[in-house]
Amino acid sequence: MPKYISLLTFTETGARAIKKSTKRAHAFDNAAKKAGVTIVGQYWTVGDYDGVLILEAAKPEDALHCLAELVSAGNVTTKTAQLFTDAEFDAILGH
User: Fold this and answer.
1) pTM of the model
2) What is the C-alpha to C-alpha distance for residues 11 and 74, in angstroms, rounded to an integer?
3) What are the pLDDT tens digits along the chain (95 aa)?
4) Do 42 and 25 meet the contact criterion of CB atoms below 8 Å apart?
């Protein structure tokens, strides 16, 4: 199943409510599951980004839907890319 990585940055609203971040993350897990998207991991980070989200979705549209719902809540912005294993990458390159 296709995997995606999303780098998260708190908005001003999200930073003000940072103590509720893990509660929001668990709620997002549940909403994603209902939408058929699997959350592989959610991590909080120190550095240029405030968090990392790794998810699996059968269709890009499903991943986009979940991430749009996440962003529309106003607590984070995202930068997202699709992930590939070595075997998937070799197949793309025709190896």
Assistant:
1) 0.90
2) 7
3) 999 999 999 999 999 999 999 999 999 999 999 999 999 999 999 999 999 999 999 999 999 999 999 999 999 999 999 999 999 999 999 97
4) yes
CA distance 84 to 5: 10
Residues found in the chain? 95
Q: Which long-range contacts (CB under 8 A, 24 or more apart) does 38-43 make?
A: 38/1, 40/3
CB 32 within 8 A of CB 39: yes
The fourth-level CATH superfamily of domain 3-93 is Apc35880; domain 1 (3.30.70.1030)
